[in-house]
Amino acid sequence: MSLSMYQASVPPAIQTLRALKAILGKAQAHCDARQIDPNAFLQSRLFPDMFPLTRQVQIACDMVKGAAARLAGAEVPAWADTETTFAELQARISKTLDWLATVPAASIDGREDADITFPVGRDKTRTMKGEAYLKHWALPNLFFHVTTAYALLRHNGVDLGKADYLMGEQAGA
Amino acid sequence: MSLSMYQASVPPAIQTLRALKAILGKAQAHCDARQIDPNAFLQSRLFPDMFPLTRQVQIACDMVKGAAARLAGAEVPAWADTETTFAELQARISKTLDWLATVPAASIDGREDADITFPVGRDKTRTMKGEAYLKHWALPNLFFHVTTAYALLRHNGVDLGKADYLMGEQAGA
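Structure tokens for the assembled complex are given below, as produced in the milestone run.
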């Protein structure tokens, strides 16, 4: 027995993006309840040269579509980064999940040894084998950006707990 | 082809703990260069009811030893949480890595459907199948605490980049 590449990648991505979507919903509710301008969160950063919340969410989505497309040997969909509200960020997550549902498991399974070439920074690329790319790049990156989004909201006072990150919409169950 | 449970769990844990150890080394160097009391970092939090940096590092180690031991069907080693310096936290990471090296791959492989029972909060437990526990609990938790440690240090001005998180001691390569 063992894990297929699809099972090792797509279900954790789905759970984590759903959790992020629910977290953003709590942040919007926090703003609504206190009449806070959502931009106070959306543009917040933990340090001046870190990305703001909006960009963290966009990158989390891009990590999922980039990894799934590359592992599947398909073209990575290019989406404009135009979101300016919590609702629009949630819609980007939904769009990512909807797109992910169109990726056949069979296109990702068996790609452990495929060469995966991906952008690193602005003008470089790196190539890793599929299994290493998934374990050492794609998943750590996804969790990094979702945790950073969570940390930004926590730092700014939104009432969240780790269950929101781990379990998403199941958190209340 | 597919990933074994050991390959899906232990190599990412090793890489991530090594990265965390290197990140703590950079934080210590930052303190040394600026004559900053390391406790200003070690006790820092992103919000009053979040854990401080020291605890984030301890938990990251505990997530690795807890997950590896439970997946291997072995007893989880109990370690006191006594670290008060960057060097002691780095030693705890080394101790975790040394212990991890004693866990046979064969004891984790094939445990996808084993019932894994683990503590949740102070007085509850939860049971998940081995594969779900790894993908939806152990790895997301590990990355959560390492990213939070990174975020705490970044927020407080330590010169780190995502390469430090992703690649550890290879970051300069």
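Chain B has a mean pLDDT of 95. The beta strands of chain B are 115-120, 124-129. Further analysis is deferred to the final report.
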